[in-house]
Design goal:
The protein is built from nine helices and no strands. The protein is an all-alpha fold.
């Protein structure tokens, strides 16, 4: 016998709860970007959000929970961007891989994104919980890239896809060091994106 569970309708209280959570997470991201991981705290986030410390701790009872939720808040933007790519690009594996590379290269130049992820890297050097978060994020990112690479290169083995994804991820993360606001080492941006895409396609065609 099959039981059907009706989905509970969202209530005004649910909407108010979600607005409160998002307000806090937006403030947490701003604080982390501006002050870095060393100054990141529930009290600082409460002040940034204009809410009480108790309100922050109601939703996020520990600093670790707040940091994890802030990272998830940032990564949700990437998921939405990937979803838009799926809708906008043709149903072609190579076009989608190249679109993802364009998206990630463009993000390297975003100062808030650079500060957030470099800050997370810095924090992970002396905070075990941040290190675990970073490791899980990188593994997930590698597997997502490997999926796009595998679709564009069906002759590749799973391990080859993972290896190429690791190279691509390391290349893109390394660019953050060279694309600061006063850096003139990489210009124009579009030339860099083109070169990376050409290199990735060469790696895919040469593997196997």
């Amino acid at each position: 016998m099959t039981r059907t569970t009706a989905r509970r309708k969202a209530t005004p209280a649910d909407a108010s709860h979600e607005r409160g959570v998002q307000r806090i997470l937006r403030a947490a991201r701003r604080l982390f970007v501006r002050e870095g991981g060393a100054a990141f705290s529930a009290r600082g986030v409460a002040k940034e959000a204009g809410v009480s410390l108790g309100a922050v701790q109601h939703f996020f009872p520990s600093k670790g929970a707040l940091l994890a939720a802030t990272l998830e808040h940032v990564l949700a933007e990437f998921r939405r961007a990937y979803e838009r790519l799926q809708e906008e690009l043709p149903f072609n594996a190579q076009a989608r891989l190249l679109g993802v590379i364009d998206l990630l290269v463009a993000d390297v130049w975003r100062q808030d994104s650079r500060k957030f992820f470099l800050g997370l890297h810095a924090l992970s050097c002396h905070n075990a919980f941040a290190a675990r978060l970073l490791s899980a994020m990188c593994e997930h990112h590698q597997r997502r890239l490997a999926g796009y690479i595998g679709a564009a290169g069906p002759h590749l083995t799973e391990q080859q896809c993972l290896d190429l994804a690791l190279q691509l991820g390391a290349m893109l993360d390394g660019l953050m060091i060279y694309t600061g606001p006063r850096s003139h080492l990489i210009t124009p941006r579009q030339r860099l994106a083109t070169e990376i895409k050409q290199n990735v396609l060469r790696l895919i065609s040469g593997a196997g």
